[in-house]
Design goal:
With about 180 residues, the protein is an alpha+beta fold. It contains seven helices and four strands, in the order H-H-E-E-H-H-E-H-E-H-H. The protein has one domain. Strand 1 and strand 2 form a beta hairpin. It starts with a helix and ends in a 16-residue tail after the last helix. This is ORF6N domain-containing protein. Pfam families: ORF6N (PF10543).
Length: about 180
């Protein structure tokens, strides 16, 4: 397995960390910006946009959408990589995982295909990490619930112990003897 990883890392066009740092969470989707994708494909942003606009039927709303000016300004403020002045004339396009995979059919360069394969693998890895984290969180919740129930059970046990201690501390009332008592004793 390690050997396979070494072979895969030698064939990488772009470092995984660079791609991972260019995945943003906008409108509830993990997306990549057109300018970032264009840089990865080594094409101009306007060329990427032109190809997408020529093939709009391939990019429904859940594959690609344009950012509103408010979203763009917020994302530019949150991410130091987004520069003031780029994509000002036209709203930036963002692509979901499916949109990125569709780009390989629109951009017919060898690099675009190889980068797309790498990006899709990273999206898949991120999805797996999220699923693993969800499983871990569910297990932690189960343990917390068990501990909560144990705390309640321990509380009941201690309450009963306190009641028993209180009963022991109270003096017993004198008992009247029942039975035969011989006179010669």
């Amino acid at each position: 397995m390690l050997r396979l990883d070494l072979i895969c890392t030698k064939n990488l066009i772009v470092q995984d960390e660079i791609i991972m740092n260019q995945i943003y969470y906008i409108r509830g989707h993990k997306v990549m910006l057109d300018a970032d994708l264009a840089a990865l494909y080594e094409v101009e942003t306007k060329q990427l946009k032109r190809q997408v606009k020529r093939n709009m039927e391939r990019f429904p709303e859940d594959f690609m959408f344009e950012l509103s000016p408010e979203e763009y300004s917020v994302s530019r403020c949150q991410n130091g990589t987004l520069k003031q002045g780029s994509n000002v004339k036209y709203a930036p396009m963002v692509f979901t995982e499916q949109g990125v995979s569709m780009l390989s059919s629109v951009l017919n360069s060898k690099r675009a295909i190889q980068v797309n394969i790498q990006i899709i693998r990273i999206f898949t890895r991120i999805r797996q990490i999220i699923a693993d984290n969800t499983d871990v969180r569910l297990e932690i919740e189960k343990i917390k619930n068990k501990l909560d129930h144990q705390d309640k059970n321990m509380e009941i046990v201690f309450r009963y112990l306190d009641e028993l201690l209180e009963k022991q501390e109270q003096p017993n009332p004198p008992r009247t003897r029942i039975g035969f008592k011989p006179d010669n004793l």
